[in-house]
Specification:
The chain contains 13 helices and 19 strands. The chain is an alpha/beta fold and 434 residues long. β14, α8 (235-246) and β15 form a beta-alpha-beta unit. α7 packs parallel to α8 (235-246) and α8 (235-246) packs parallel to α10. The longest helix has 18 residues, at 206-223.
Length: 434
């Protein structure tokens, strides 16, 4: 059932930052924008401390559904997304079974229809992520995929990747590459260097990422087709991508908040919650990733949301890689805005507009007649990250115990309030019909 919602005195971010105004939402769309709107509504929201952003889009999420629902499922992953202001996502194919069949794509799309979140499956490049037999991309696209990738693993055969790039381009399916050479990694679990030596474990050499990043760009340039590089973490990859863009190669890329805000020092405590792939790296890498983000080399901020059960993360050496991030990604990334390194509209571009553009999806705008798909954020709200309060089944969040500034407090999709932060409302004592 559609709701009539009146948001009073809210600031809008759409291209720039607008003066405060009232927003009326009716029948699933933004019906009016203006001052002192005199309209009846089911819900009236005091937006005087709030900023409205277009719903964020996370183009790199692991929902673990089907097959690994003890870690996460489509419903809990969607709840985590909404709590983070994320109204759309692309979910990666390394499920069980992998997203390599029409039936699996349909299963995800049918289940996603009940979440209030726009969920687009990413299909496999090769069947079972095994790097051998190519999938039927046309059939998968007809079923509902938005891109192809073997994320979680690299496509080890260069010719297989070249064929995927060519076939994907012909079908309008972006190809997302997990850049890792498994022979170089050779069982490494943290960044090779200070982290691996201090902890006495095998390290993950940066050459693994840099080498495959370069390979993918060469293949894409040769075929004159696009390539999207996932989770960039090294100064080498940033420089390779920057150079390729300057040469006119159709390359886009993404990174995660932990790569431009954290270094390998965080993992020295021996807590597996700080292990992910690619790993946290050096200060030189962090600065390079940040510079790439600020100068436009890096197009998107994603989470690589990778939930695992607490029991699986208990043993540092044998734990699977991955961290969750959808509920903290905006708050963490707002550090750049608060520091004056990036404007809020620029951050929205990285977290909402560019991911949709790369995937060929419609943009969501805060304008009259547009779908009511947005999140209301208190940019100055201080909150401490508590894993036990996460909406995800998983608790492996690297910002645990940290105080972040800025938080989504209400998320609306299809003109319906899907999430509200009750703790925030209680603290501010501003219910006003939420």
């Amino acid at each position: 059932m559609k709701q009539t919602i009146l948001i009073r005195d809210v600031q809008l971010v759409q291209g720039g930052i607008s003066p405060r105004c009232d927003m009326l939402i009716q029948d699933g769309v933004i019906a009016k924008l203006g001052k002192d709107l005199n309209e009846s509504a089911h819900f009236v929201i005091d937006g005087s401390r709030l900023t409205a952003l277009p719903g964020l889009f996370d183009m790199h999420v692991h929902l673990r559904d089907p097959g690994q629902t003890h870690k996460e499922d489509i419903f809990t992953g969607s709840a985590a997304a909404l709590a983070g202001g994320i109204t759309g996502m692309a979910c990666m194919p390394n499920t069980s079974p992998a997203i390599d069949s029409v039936d699996t794509v349909r299963y995800i799309c049918e289940k996603a229809a009940y979440t209030g979140v726009e969920i687009h499956p990413v299909g496999c490049i090769t069947k079972g992520l095994k790097g051998e037999e190519m999938c039927d991309y046309a059939a998968l696209k007809d079923a509902g995929i938005c891109a192809i990738s073997d994320d979680g693993r690299p496509v080890e055969c260069a010719e297989a990747m070249r064929q995927a790039l060519i076939q994907g381009d012909a079908l309008g399916l972006p190809v997302i590459s997990h850049c890792e050479d498994l022979s170089i990694i050779n069982g490494g679990i943290v960044n090779r260097g200070v982290a691996s030596e201090t902890l006495g474990v095998r390290g993950m050499d940066r050459a693994s990422e840099d080498y495959i990043t370069a390979r993918e760009i060469i293949l894409a340039a040769s075929a004159n087709v696009p390539i999207h590089i996932a989770h960039v973490s090294t100064y080498g990859s940033v420089e390779i991508i920057r150079h390729a863009k300057a040469q006119g190669v159709k390359v886009t890329c993404e990174t995660c908040p932990h790569y431009f805000l954290m270094t390998e020092e965080a993992v020295l405590c021996g807590d597996a919650d700080y292990r992910m792939n690619p790993p946290l790296r050096t200060e030189k890498d962090r600065k390079a990733v940040l510079e790439g983000l600020l100068d436009g080399t890096i197009d998107c901020i994603v989470t690589d949301h990778a939930p695992h059960a607490p029991s699986e993360k208990a043993d540092f050496r044998y734990a699977p890689n991955g961290v969750i991030g959808m509920e903290t990604s905006l708050a963490a990334s707002l550090k750049l805005v608060h520091a004056g390194l990036m404007t809020l509209p620029q951050l929205v571009q990285k977290m909402a507009e560019n991911p949709r553009k790369i995937l060929g999806l419609p943009q969501h705008q805060l304008a009259v007649g547009e779908p009511a798909d947005l999140t209301l954020v208190d940019l100055d709200y201080h909150w401490t990250v508590d894993p036990e309060k996460m909406h995800s089944k998983a608790k492996n969040v690297i910002w645990k115990g940290k105080t972040l500034v800025g938080k989504p407090v209400c998320t609306i999709t299809d003109g319906i309030i899907r999430y509200q932060d009750t703790e925030y409302l209680e603290e501010r004592n501003r219910c006003n019909g939420f």
